[in-house]
Amino acid sequence: MTIARPFQWRADTTKRDTTRAAVLLALLACAGMYPSNARAKLAHQGASSVQFTALGSMGLKMVGTSSELAITEDAQSISLLVKLTQLDTGISLRDRHMRDKYLQVQKFPTTTLVVPRSGLKLPAQGATSQGNVQATLQLHGHEHPVSVQYQVQRHGTAFDVQGSLRLQMTDFDIIVPAYMGITVKPDVDVVAKFVAADL
Amino acid sequence: MTMDTRATQPALVRVGLAIAVVLGLGSWTGRAHAYGWMIARDYTGCGTCHADPSGGGLLTVYGRAQGEVLLRTRYSRVAADEEPGRVKDFLFGAFALPDSVLLGGEYRAGYLHSVAAGTASIDKFLQMQSDLQGQVSFGRVRMNASIGYDHNGAQAARLTSADRDNLISRVHWLGVDLGADNTWLVRVGRMNVPYGLRGIEHTFFIRSPTGPLFGAGVHDDINAGQQHGVALAYNVDGLRGELMLIAGNLQLTPAAEREQGYSGYLEWAPSVHVAVGVSTLITQVSREPLFQTALTRQAHGLFGRFSPLRQLTIMSEVDLLVNAQPRGVSRAYSGTGYAALLQADCEPVQGLHFILSGEAIAPPYVQTATSYGGWGSVAWFFAPHTDVRVDAILQSLGVGSQHVAASTLLGQLHVYL
Fold first, then answer.
1. Residue B398's pLDDT is what?
2. Alpha carbon distance B296, B301 (integer Å)
3. Cβ contact B329:B342 at 8 Å
4. Are B69 and A91 within 8 A, CB to CB?
5. Which among A114, A52, A110 has a CA at the least distance from the CA of A84?
6. Which residues of B touch A63 (CB under 8 A)?
7. Which one of A76, B116, B222, B226 has the minimum C-beta count within 10 Å?
8. In whole angstroms, how large is the CA radius of gyration of chain B?
9. CB < 8 Å to A56, chain B
């Protein structure tokens, strides 16, 4: 299976459809984490997006994006990996603070979402499936369960995928960011949208 | 321009006076900083950077940092993620302030050249703003005030009573932050009128406080358009607003010329690059200073900001204007009109702005033609705390049923402490 539009997935074509589809769903479930990978590789293009949103005092809202997602899989789970070094909030100084002080990317350069295959549902042709799956997020050297909401629409060989999760920085021992009197709230929303095609 | 002219002057003479004001006899005075185009940098709200929850004027510590990080030109790639350092602080970091104290200052000066058809050109140096501003906080309680010198043009904010060269105070208020994240702020004192887009171009038709076109705009400028009253502001992610009960400008005498009423706005930002809002204002005055008649003013409008690209921000405001005089008197200053502004700000390089603005106003008076204006502006925030700006303005001003062409070139230097 290959994911194209906007991701291109270079994969083992001997795998069965269900396995490939499960991998695909995991992608959306990951909602924000991007790969570089092993057996599968995603290339971002088109309308794909992954972003996190954090809120702060006095109505501050910051949105960060990344564009690299990698995926690996085994018999029980699908793992999605994002390079934290690629997160971009649009302000260089803020990015540096995020990477160096809070996420400490020199020590913890990636985050991984591990999604159990048993929790995923795939849609039939022309249908939509959605659900929640309990996954495990590895971030900042810590592991914590997270609830992932996903939705997938299947059009021919294409899957429109969207997934989201909310994480608490404090669950991962990340210092709550504060800068010049503005404090960021510890809960962070992550959303991913992309289209995948079963080739 | 003083506030006590006209009552007995013929209409055309008064129109002439208005044109004169447009051309610089007093209306090009101070401005604070208030930049709605910061939405291009993901900042939809104002309270992160300004002590005033609706924006403008005294900067917070965070706002000072953004002044260095985001506002001004950075001259190397390495500099883009440098800490702002002490240069961001009051007096360029000459000394440290306690966390509970904010201090600031503004100096703005300019040179004006303007011409209107049938009149001599005007060339003059303008002392536009010389203010000191401060805020002291005691827990949730804030005391905020400004004091400054004004040569001519901000008489509505004066503390002394000379014809020229007065001490002025544009704002002074006592506030209490409320809510878990200081979501609410209740204030009493003299404040900027909460309405629509807030910006430094205080002579735009939509704002036109005391001069251009007989003050036909909303009167919400941040030069000297502040009012005394009580206000409640609300700021959360994606939603901000403020409602003010206006007791009148207590620095204006006689008391009969003070407006009472309310003004407010509510802005919703569905994303960090889009914001839309509504505004409303109703005031009543026993003797309107320009028209020398009792008057009820209404303004109700829509405004929006949109940044499709990091380098581009589109802003617009449209207001319905309604004036009503009491029954039994001349209705010359009654009627329905509108004011509109469309502005595009392009920032190809951080700190350098090319701005195009188009505006129109149909004053809510009987028999007054619609006026139009076009601005081409360049602003460059080229050094810490410092910017320069040039505005080229072409206007077709409605004078009775006629139009008078006017052009203005304004250059200015602005430094904040």
1. 87
2. 17
3. no
4. yes
5. A110
6. 42, 272
7. A76
8. 20
9. 48
Q: What is the pLDDT of residue B382?
A: 97
What is the CB neighbour count within 10 angstroms for residue B129? 28
Task: Name the range with the highest mean pLDDT among B18-22, B151-155, B185-189.
Answer: B185-189
CB pair distance less than 8 Å for A59 and B80: no
With CB atoms and an 8 Å threshold, state whether A90 touches B70: no
CATH superfamily placement of domain A14-198: Lipid/polyisoprenoid-binding, YceI-like (2.40.128.110)
CATH of residue B291: 2.40.160.10
CB neighbour list of residue A116: distance below 8 Å, 6 or more residues apart = A76, A77, A133, A134, A135
What CA–CA distance (Å, rounded) separates B288 from B4?
A: 10
**Closest residue of chain A to B80, computed from CA coordinates:** A92
Region of poorest pLDDT, from B93-107, B124-138, B318-332: B318-332
Q: What percent of chain B has pLDDT over 90?
A: 73
pLDDT in tens, B161-190: 998 999 999 999 999 999 988 899 999 999
Closest to B242 (Cα-Cα) out of B306, B307, B175, B296: B175
Spatial CB neighbours of B127, under 8 Å, sequence gap ≥ 6: B29, B109, B149, B150, B151
The whole domain housing B399 covers 9-416
Q: Using CA atoms in the order B388, B394, B398, B403, what is the torsion angle rounded to 10 degrees? A: 150
Taking only the tens place, the pLDDT of each residue in B265-282 is 999 999 999 999 999 999
| Pairs of residues, one from chain A and one from chain B, whose beta carbons lie less than 8 Å apart | 67
B65 and A179 within 8 Å at the Cβ level: the answer is yes
Distance CA B10, CA A189 (A): 64
Output the 3-class SS for chain B.
CCCCCCCCCCHHHHHHHHHHHHCCCCCCCCCCCCCHHHHHHCCCCCCCCECCCCCCCCECHHHHHHHHHHHCCCCCCHHHHCCCCHHHCHHHHCCCCCCCEEEEEEEEEEEEEEEECCCCCEEEEEEEEEEEEEEEEECCEEEEEEEEEECCCCHHHECCCCCCCEEECCCEEEEEEECCCCCEEEEEEEECCCCCCCCCCCCCCCCCCCCHHHHCCCCCCCCCCCEEEEEEEEEECCEEEEEEEEEECCCCCCHHHCCEEEEEEEEEEEECCEEEEEEEEEEEECCCCCCCCCEEEEEEEEEEEEEEECCEEEEEEEEEEEEECCCCCCCCCCEEEEEEEEEEEEEEECCEEEEEEEEEEECCCCCCCCEEEEEEEEEEEEECCEEEEEEEEEEEEEECCEEEEEEEEEEEEEEEC
Do the Cβ atoms of A42 and A8 come closer than 8 Å? yes
